[in-house]
Amino acid sequence: METTSKKKGPLYYTVKEAIKEQIRKGELKKGEVIPTEKMLCEEYQASRVTIRRAIEELIEEDVLERGFGKTATVKFDKVPRKVNNLTSLQEEMEKIGVKCTSFILNSEIMEAPLEVAEEMKLPEGEKVMKIERLRYANEKPLCYQVLYLSERLCGALEPARLVSQSLYRILEQEMGIRIKRADQVIQAVMSTYRITALLELPAQTSMLFVKRIAYTEAEECLEYSESFYVGDRYNLTMSLFREI
Predict the structure, then answer these.
(1) pTM score, two decimals?
(2) Most Cβ neighbours (<10 Å): which of 5, 104, 107, 171?
(3) How far is CA 98 from the centre of its chain?
(4) Dist CA 39 CA 18 (whole Å)
């Protein structure tokens, strides 16, 4: 690496441009934690004040972001998703070459809570499979989701398979359940303390809340889900047609 004495401009600017170059060359990858302040101080023979200014400017320029515990990481590109078609997150991510995985926090068969039963239009006492999970895009935390599935229709599903496989694909291709349509509501919310901790986010992070209710071809309610997506890592797009 070229010594800083040969560079022009303030030292903080030299450090900032050097980090940008490492990112451009792939030496620092998307979502990766950058070296510690101490390591950068030693590498560039600079003070912490200088290093902190370089980091703060990179954050302002949207090159870096503050992660959990205030560590700086290389900014992760927003995950694009179209909302015109009824697909699972896993299916959508696979199309654009993004690795989508899940971590199952909890799964159980239970009597549908009142609110869920009302949303799914289930009779009193009907059971559902509840799955609570974290979703990742290229190993970067993206979403916290609580999923309720009709136990009568999906009771044979093994929740552990959802770590790396698409729910909709399993239901349709292996269990013969044809998903026809879904109603979806999207709104902006702030993260709760628990979601902030689970997704390793700074406090009070903006999120996209997505509520989905999906139906089979026979108009039976199959799924009710509540998903909380990290706002600055998720990008929704749609095509609109004007009817006259």
Answers:
(1) 0.69
(2) 171
(3) 11
(4) 14
- Structural contact between residues 230 and 141, judged by C-beta atoms closer than 8 angstroms: yes
Q: List the pLDDT tens digit at each of the 244 positions of the chain.
A: 444 444 467 898 899 999 988 888 888 877 678 888 899 999 999 999 999 999 998 888 878 877 655 678 777 666 666 666 788 788 877 877 778 899 999 999 999 999 999 999 999 899 999 999 999 987 888 899 999 999 999 999 999 999 999 999 999 999 999 999 999 999 999 999 999 999 988 777 889 999 999 999 999 999 999 999 987 776 667 666 777 6
DSSP string, 130-182: EEEEEEEETTEEEEEEEEEEEHHHHTT--GGGGGTS-HHHIIIIIS-PPEEEE
Read off the tokens for 192: 């709760």
Round to whole Å and give the CA distance between 163 and 99. Answer: 12
Answer whether 103's CB lies under 8 Å from 196's CB: no
In the block, tokens 């209710």 appear at 213
Q: At what angle do helices 48-60 and 11-24 cross, to 10 degrees?
A: 50
Taking CA 167 as the corner, what is the angle to CA 162 and CA 172, rounded to the nearest 5 degrees?
140
Q: Angle at which helices 48-60 and 37-44 pack, to 10 degrees? A: 110
Query: In this structure, are residues 165 and 105 in contact, taking their beta carbons and an 8 Å threshold?
Result: no
Q: What is residue 33's DSSP assignment? A: B
Backbone CA torsion sign across 14, 16, 18, 24 = negative
